[in-house]
Design a protein that fits this description.
By secondary structure, the chain is mostly helical. It folds into 3 domains: 31 residues, no CATH class; 74 residues, no CATH class; 94 residues, Helicase, Ruva Protein, domain 3. The protein has 11 helices and 5 strands, in the order ββαααααααβααβαβα. α1 crosses α3, α1 packs across α4 and α6 crosses α8. The protein is flat. The N and C termini lie far apart (75 Å).
Length: 238
């Protein structure tokens, strides 16, 4: 299929009993394969006699079986986004040196690897990129939650420090861009339950709210008493 042939593809809406297919010629189709390839940087490090651990600090190659334990300890000690970004920069530097033999050693068959002549490593997401993913796309996570709050006529705002703190948590948890929504949802969980039927007019999220030191700040409007509500109803009837 990768080298160009005619394949029979089942129709999306066809019935199973009829087995209707469409012939597709793959000769002029560009195939792009992608994947995470976790641990590939360690294979490259082993091949190039470099060490992907310790932010440039040399490691005795005689450690052998202790290498995995040392890496686990190092990973647990990465408590700040700066350490994680340094680790990602080292990994990116190693992945730039990837060769087909590294993918073969990773577990892919040579016949498959040989049909993809161009290897393009992607760099890791840093905090600034995660903040942009949070805010800039048309259907970004922040815009979706703002629209959700707008349905209850409540304004939702985030400080710049709060957005950076959310991105830092995604880096620390190693969940990437997909983990941003879960973090934002956990922060706004209580306000989302409190807002319906309340007098809340605005919710403001700060860095302390993201870090769990306080709840998001809810700004309340002046409640309408029963007398005003009855007068408003009579005015509408008249």
């Amino acid at each position: 299929m990768l080298e160009g042939t005619v394949v029979n593809v089942p129709e999306k809406n066809s019935r199973k009993l009829r087995n209707e297919t469409v012939q597709v010629d793959t000769t002029n189709i560009l195939f792009v394969a992608s994947g995470a390839f976790t641990g590939l940087d360690r294979l490259i490090s082993r091949r190039t006699n470099q060490n992907s651990l310790g932010f440039g600090v040399g490691i005795d190659t005689a450690m052998g079986s202790r290498r995995a334990a040392a890496e686990a300890d190092r990973t647990e000690s990465l408590t700040s986004y700066t350490d994680i970004e340094k680790e990602n920069a080292e990994r990116d530097g190693l992945l730039k040196k990837v060769e087909p033999r590294d993918l073969i050693q990773f577990g892919m068959i040579p016949e498959f690897v040989g049909r993809f002549p161009v290897l393009v490593p992607f760099h890791s997401l840093n905090r600034n990129l995660l903040v942009r993913i949070l805010t800039e796309p048309k259907n970004s996570t922040i815009k979706q939650f703002k629209l959700l709050f707008d349905l209850d006529k409540v304004e939702l705002t985030f400080t710049d420090d709060a957005l950076r703190a959310i991105a830092s948590q995604a880096l620390e948890k190693k969940t990437g861009a997909r983990g941003l929504r879960a973090i934002v949802e956990s922060i706004l969980l209580d306000p989302m339950f409190e807002i319906p039927g309340s007098d809340v007019v605005s919710v403001h999220v700060t860095e302390d709210a993201v870090n769990g030191k306080m709840n998001p700040h809810c700004i309340r409007g002046r409640p309408i008493d029963e007398g005003e509500a009855k007068m408003d109803t009579r005015a509408k009837v008249e």
